[in-house]
Structure formats: C-alpha cells, structure tokens
Amino acid sequence: MAHDVIAFGSDMRDRKDGSFPVMDYTRSIPSFCPDSIISNPPFKVAQDFIDCALASTHDRVAVLLRLAFLEGRKRNEWFPSVPLARVWVSSNRISMPPGGTDISAEGGKTAHAWFVFEHGYSGAPSIGWIQKEDSI
Length: 136
Hints:
Layout: H1 25-32, E1 37-39, H2 46-56, E2 60-66, H3 73-78, E3 84-90, E4 112-118, E5 126-130
Parallel strand pairs: 1-2, 3-5
Antiparallel strand pairs: 2-4, 3-4
Helix pairs in contact: 1-2
C-alpha cells in the first residue's frame, strides 16, 4: 500500500506465470466494491465490464481499449447513459501481444485509448492525446 492506495489485480484466465488470481469480474468486482477500477478488459466484454464496474464503484473506471470502441450503433445508444468523461488517445501504437504467450512486444498495429468514466460526470466527454516523451 503506497499513498494510502490499496491495489488488487486479477485476470479472467490463468496465465503461464500465475501472477494474478483468476476471477470472474461479474463476481469479483461486486464483492470487492473498489473505489475505482483501472483495467484492460477483453474487447468482447468491455461494455458489460464497464457496466459492472460502474455499478460497483463510486469514483471512476478507466479502461484501455481499442479506439474502435467508440464505433457502433448499439454503443451510440449506450454512451449517453454512462458518465464517459474523457478519452485519452495513444499517439503511439501500443503493442499488446496475447497474454501468457512468448510473443515479443513490437510496434502495435491497432489504435488504443483510455476511456475514463467518472461517477457524477455529465456532458460531452473531452478528448486528449497521450504522447511518448522524447528521449533526452
């Protein structure tokens, strides 16, 4: 615990190194009731994950997802019902090889962004860019 922050990590499936306990988020998030959540949920369940996280937190939920998460008719109807405050687009492509593999991280091919949901936020989300700092 640093700076009065208690952190907990888990994964939805077992990885080779066993670094995180395996837990189903639909049970683990409500049982822990954390103040905030920072996660990289699987894209297929991202919307459900965010809904579950928002129902069990009272501060914020930040998720790293493909920028394409902004697309789609169903999400277009969903976004006004959630407190999306900010979208932080990565100016550099992030390399995310599949978890539990020996694939090395190289230049990524997909655009990613942090989606930050804040309880009590209303209005249009702001957009910003995360840039890799220049080497000195």
